[in-house]
Every structure is written in C-alpha cells, then in structure tokens.
Amino acid sequence: MENIDKEVFLAPSIRKHYILYVIRKALLNAVTETLPVLKGTLVDIGCGIKPYREYILENSSVTNYIGVEWEGTSYHLRVKPEKYWDGKTLPFDNESVESCMATEVFEHLSNPVQVGKEAYRILKPEGVLFLTVPFLWPLHEVPYDEYRYTPFSIKRILMEAGFEENSISVKATGGWYACLGQMISHVFGIYLPKGLYRKWLIRFSVPLIEWLQKKDRPPKKFTDHVMPLGFSVIATK
C-alpha cells in the first residue's frame, strides 16, 4: 500500500490515478521547482507517508530529513515519522534547521499563524519554509478541513509569523485549464454514480484532461477573475 500511495505523488498517471492526477502533477512540479533552495536539515511538518523524502534527498542539498506528524493520525500506523508533535510546538531548538516544508497541511490548521511562527523559530537565518495549499479542492479529512487561502491571506499569515514581506514568494500551481481538468475528474470520478455511464465518461475525458494539462498556464499575477488551482510558497527567514 505504501508503494502505491507514493506512486501517485512521484509518478502520477491519469489512467492509474484519474481523480488525483491534476493535483498530484501540480504538486510534484512545485516540489521539483523548490529543490534548488532546500538544504541541510529539513523538517517536513505533517509529513504523512513521507512521499517526497527520497526524491528530495536524492535531488537537493538536503542532508537530513525529519518527518513530523500528529500522533493521532492514521499515517503513522504505516509509516513512522521521525518525531511527533502536538500541532502547536515543533520539537526543535531555536534556529536549528535550514529548511521546513508543509505540503497540503496549512488548510488543516486551526492555528496557521502559530505554526508559521514555529517554523520561523526553528529556521536558521536564511533558512527556507516551503509550503503548498489547495485553492480549488473538495472538503476532505472532515472535520479537519479549516481553510482555503488566497495569495494575500497566506502572505499575511506568514508576515504575522515573522517573515518579511519581500522574502515571501507565492506562485499558483495551476490556472483555469488545470481547474477545469480537476473538476471534470472529480465530477466523473466521484460525484457520478458507478456504472457504465460513468465508466465511458471517464474513458473519453482522459485525452481532454491531458490536453487541458498541457495547455494550462498558471497565472503570474493575482487579479480579478483569476482562477488558481492552488499555491506554492517559499518564505526565507
């Protein structure tokens, strides 16, 4: 099960991972783009099954990966984190690590500013926090689904956590076409009742979603009528 789970993160295929293909492809791209700035000891906050661990260690300057997870989650039953935490205080000394990451975690936090402050506290000067959050995504892990962020709110939260405004970079992980492809896969793959009708719709939609993915251009500016799939954020201490 662990290998199957990691495959959707590291090698997403529309035919094997129809419902998750668009978002996982976007997140893998975001991780890949961030690899050059990750280094030293990296703390993965809310690491889950640690899907990117080997990928990061093999393709970046990270030398020590530490996964941190809540003890009450089901993830650690299959994959043990290196450390547990209470969702409030990270178990590390001040200015003790070079990198932090939190992929698809902040939308589940009731205290994002507090966690942002903790990441800031444990980072060394010039250390980097990398995080991703969804914008267009169904309710999930209910009732622990707290927020959908705009680029303005996530930047404000990180500034309240201690990061300087000019040290925070927010990018969209996808645009209108990616959002449309994601919605098609969710409507056909989740919402429609099972049966031949849904099976054929899924089959015929595959080339359309692939085309949408190729044509998608994530917005570079956040103005009225922009539709982002989600956000990738880098903040430097």
Automatic annotation (TrEMBL):
One of its GO terms (biological process) is methylation. It comes from the Bacteria. Gene3D superfamilies: Vaccinia Virus protein VP39 (3.40.50.150). It holds the Pfam family Methyltransf_11. Keywords: Methyltransferase, Transferase. Residues 43-131 form the Methyltransferase type domain. One of its GO terms (molecular function) is S-adenosylmethionine-dependent methyltransferase activity. This is SAM-dependent methyltransferase.
